[in-house]
Design brief:
8-stranded mixed sheet, two-stranded antiparallel ribbon, 37% helix
Amino acid sequence: MLVLLPPSETKHPGGDGPPVDLSSLTAPELTPVRTELVEALVKLADDVPASRAALALSPKQDDEIERNAALWTSPTLPALQRYTGVLYDALDVRSLTRAQRARADRRLAVGSALFGVVGGADLVPAYRLSAGSTLPGQPTLRALWKPALSPVLAAVDGLVVDLRSGSYAALAPVPGAVTLQVLSERPDGTRSVVSHFNKAHKGRVARLLAASTAEPGDVVGLRRLLRRAGLHVEHDGGTALTLVVPTAEA
């Protein structure tokens, strides 16, 4: 089972790992595209106004440009510790047991605008690049990533659970992947899409899948696993699941 997570705009700073070795990351066949994008970001960092425009940054975020300038030399962290925010707070990998963390490193991967996809234990530097960014003189990120990344994800042996946000899923869709929509249900039975806390619920699902020793092979098995954990999950056919949470918990 492979669980694809979205990245976060913000990243934990620093780290104690060596500078990034692109060929050591998951799916080394992506190294040419990764190298092209890292080089482009490092070069772009020499032009602060252009960096701000391309990356949608304000002057108060110029430290993000400095991070990009140091991509080849800055320290690294495991991917599951580098990314921050609501989803990763809910995932809380630091509190997993050793066995659970080993499963998390094996099962969880992060979609990345810069690296395409990185495994949970892959050592990556802090950086700033979003799926919607367009770098000067470069094709769109979707045009760069789709031909290279799609075959990698399509070749995954086993169930793929795609929790990426729309813009990251668009970089390389995975045919047949299980997706998860989160809906809140009011006392009168009406429902609405969860927006703000959508990532938190997906982070909890990712944690559950990392912690479980079960290995579901299809969407039905995955639904069964989630329901055994006390989640209200509906399956109306196909590969889409719906997680329904009471409004008070949404």
